[in-house]
């Protein structure tokens, strides 16, 4: 029997008059999507193991407004932003970590103009820092020498110029990091951004996630590392579509680290 | 009679520059049809961007072959323009090679111009082959049929002719110098044109002089013609790349602007003391239109972007939607915006400075909703553009119009937005269940 997860809420912290080191913004995918919930839990295990004082908003968290904004509904986005900012400012939130690049981008870049000023970090940056500060330790063991390719999420890479933190983590697993034909600044999108996740694609020759999956499979990697719940879904679907799920798995970097640290 | 060439030259020069400045005024009037935008921020970063991206061609070399060839043509055109200065002075004063007293330095200058001219010719030939023989995908996309294709080739022919004239002029000049013909003072070094000069040996002084003069005149008239061709072609980037990279995006690519008009309304809606039935004050402006359906709804930087686009198609070749066969092409978004803006500009000229409704708009008549809904907002186009054009911002502004003014989002997106409104998530889950994962089995 594994240890139960410790997931305190901001409300609980507030009631005891304390402040957590960081707010973990779980996001809609991380809260409700079965695949993404596993990533959420893996990240919480890491936080618990490293003894990070964190909290979630729980039922007080609401969609950050990204899909609405990218679909063109600025009203709905700003309503969502105003509500979330009110809650977070009420709790005096200073620092936020999230496992979703869409949440990361919008809170970091688009909330400040609406009164929400926080230090926002992506979970790959946060985990990397935990390892560097010696708060978390792990041995590559499990993934030593495995071929892992990393798919850059657009909102982390091109959107915010974060290319290295996730790659450093893969290297810390002692794995062999192999790059796809298009990567980093020129990485191909998984096809989910800009609210595409919630609609059928427009008419074309092929779905974008299939195209990207082909690039991933070309690397002959055993693991496709993701750092975004939407990319994870798209790439998982793509690998299934190519009947490769027996030999290739799509994993979030937090899951890889949690497994390597034997959590 | 002696001053006739000087006078003709001066008249051509005035006409060429005069017409060009008229077109620049047109351009600036059209750009000013867009919404004003504050660009007083990040001034030093803006200068750095201009120096790195436009002057330094920083993003061109991402694709090495095209990048290096482009640097040849770019350097050639910029540096050989020093020679144009001499040509203009000679033309006005009736002198010949007025800078020649610079001596050895002059020889060095002319020699480097010749080498550069040769490099330009190499670049142009490679470009022509890529477009017409290799037919690289991005040059043969649907939006490149007809005029855009011809325009691109015409520009290459032009540049080829201009460079050839420059070399022929020098070759004939060198022969005349060699023959000791008065007026043709010994000056310059001709490392490239000497090979053309071989074929001129033995020609009479008269025919050499005709050749030299003809090449000289055609060269300068050609340059003035080319200058005026810019406005009617895709080639304005040679000028506009500089302001465009200066005014380009300085915030992270992932960041979209927040609409201020919406912020005001949201504040009002969330203010418990606001009176929802209050009648707006009599002199208040009509509510701002949300998003963009036509070029006037876009901002000035977006319109400058449209004029700057040189249709290279790097954006389109990196666009995930386009790669997988969707209708969206970021290049076409820019070309459509420019073409519609030109149409509006002509409408204004025809109607004494006032735009008269023509029953057309950018959305629908130029850009279809299907194109807009294919975008994944991945920023590949923005990253790929070598001159800091942002097609994504236009796509988002047009989506805003579709959704906020017309409620014309695809059905699935409407249910997604309905869910966010009611449940705080894009799916119909209860907000109270957001932390259930923590209690579920690991």
**Second rung of CATH, namely the architecture of the largest domain in chain A:** 3-Layer(aba) Sandwich
Q: What percentage of residues of chain A falls in helices of 4 or more residues?
A: 40-55%
Mean pLDDT over all positions of chain A: 96
- How many domains, in number, for the residues of chain B? 2
Task: Spell out the helices and strands of chain A N to C.
Answer: HEHHEHHEHEHEHEHEHEH
The quaternary organization reads as heterodimer
Summarize the structure.
The complex is a heterodimer of chains A (263) and B (442). Chain A is built from 11 helices and 8 strands. Chain A has 263 residues and is of the alpha/beta class.
Describe this structure in words.
The complex is a heterodimer of chains A (263) and B (442). By secondary structure, chain A is of the alpha/beta class. Chain A has two domains: 10-129, Glutathione S-transferase Yfyf (Class Pi), Chain A, domain 2, CATH 1.20.1050; 138-260, Rossmann fold. Helix content of chain A is 43%, strand content 11%. Chain A has helices spanning 10-15, 27-32, 34-49, 66-71, 74-90, 101-110, 123-132, 164-172, 208-218, 229-241, 253-260, and strands at residues 22-25, 54-55, 95-98, 119-122, 147-150, 176-178, 223-226, 249-252. In chain A, the strands form two sheets. Chain A has a four-stranded parallel beta sheet. The longest helix of chain A is centred in the first third of the chain and has 17 residues, at 74-90. The N and C termini of chain A lie close together (12 Å). Chain B has helices at residues 4-31, 43-55, 64-93, 104-132, 147-178, 194-197, 205-229, 237-247, 260-270, 300-308, 314-318, 320-323, 330-350, 362-365, 369-373, 380-384, 391-405, 411-423. The N and C termini of chain B lie far apart (99 Å). Chain B: Keywords: 4Fe-4S, Iron, Iron-sulfur, Membrane, Metal-binding, Oxidoreductase, Transmembrane, Transmembrane helix. Chain B: The chain crosses the membrane at residues 6-24, 65-89, 109-129, 150-172, 214-232. Chain B: GO terms for molecular function: 4 iron, 4 sulfur cluster binding; metal ion binding; oxidoreductase activity. Chain B: This is (Fe-S)-binding protein.
